[in-house]
Structure formats: structure tokens, C-alpha cells
Amino acid sequence: MTAEDKNRFDSISVMYKQAWNNFNERRKYESKISFGVYTVYAFTIAGIFIQMEKDTIKGDIFLPGIIVIGLLVLILHGLYLKGASKANFIDRKIAVHFEKHMQKLTATEFDNDFKTNFISKTNLSESKIPFFLCTWDPRVSLLISFILYLSLILTTWVSSKSY
């Protein structure tokens, strides 16, 4: 490897590491925000149950507000996950692009035997677990939020019928 190739490799390496760092930092916040949304839903459901036991809640007045606010939280969570997912996809593609350039510069590209015998045999699509559950797919986070949202509506509706 020439000195020019080494400088080029070092420059590409910095950009490669930065793309993965961006990805990893975003993933930390993505999970924290999702857990925050889950917590809001769970505490609201728990609060409704507690108020039902104390007979201090009027569900018929409370239900429309819960539906609107809960739906707003669900939509905002979905928009956030869509944006984070798009940014993560871009960072992964950038990192893979630079990785291929580094492999070419160092002549360490994956040979066909490795690709055939290792990479293709570790494909997640062959797993018995659905693909979206094996990855960091934002659809799973949105599904959990949606289920909690439906639980919130059901809880509020039941509380309005108990009077």
C-alpha cells in the first residue's frame, strides 16, 4: 500500500467510523423515546384504573380527550420513528460504501467462498422468527405504541360505562 493509499484509507476510515457513530447514537435515543412513549401510555392507563376505584373519574367527558391526545402521541411517535429509520438507513449505506472502499484499498475483499458459505447462510430471512422482530425495525416500536393506545381507549371506554 502506497503512502497515498494509506492516507486515503485513513480518511475513508474516519468517515466510516463517523457513519456508524451517528447510527449508534441515534439508536440510543430512539429506544429511550420509545420507552418514554410506552411509559406515558402505561401511567395514563394506571391513572384511569386508580381513579375508577376512587369513583372520581367521569369517562364520558374524558374519553374524547384521551382518544385525541393518545392518537396525537401515536402519530408523533410514528413520524419520529420514520425519520430516525430513514437516517439510520442512510448511515448504514454510507458505512457499507466506505467499508467496500477500504476492502479494495487493502485487498481484503470478501471472496466468493466466504460470501457463499457464511454470509448467505446467516441470512435472517431463514429464521423462524419474523424478520421485523429480528432487527431493530421501528414497526415493532410503533406496534407496541398502537397496542398501548388501543388499551388506553378501551380502559377509558370501560371507565365511562361503569357509571
Describe the structure.
By secondary structure, this protein is mainly α. It has one domain. The protein contains five helices and no strands. Helix 1 (3-54) packs parallel to helix 5. The longest helix is centred in the first third of the chain and has 52 residues, at 3-54. The model has no long low-confidence stretch (mean pLDDT 80).
Shape: elongated
- Nearest-angstrom radius of gyration? 24 Å
> In this structure, how is the largest beta sheet organized?
none
Structural class: mainly alpha
**Secondary structure: helix percent:** over 70%
Mean pLDDT: 80
How many helix segments?
5
Order of helices and strands: HHHHH
Instruction: Assess the beta-strand content as a share of residues.
Output: under 5%
Distance between the termini: 80 Å
Count of structural domains = 1
Unreliable stretches: none
Q: TL;DR of this structure?
A:
With about 160 residues, this protein is mostly helical. The chain contains 5 helices and no strands.
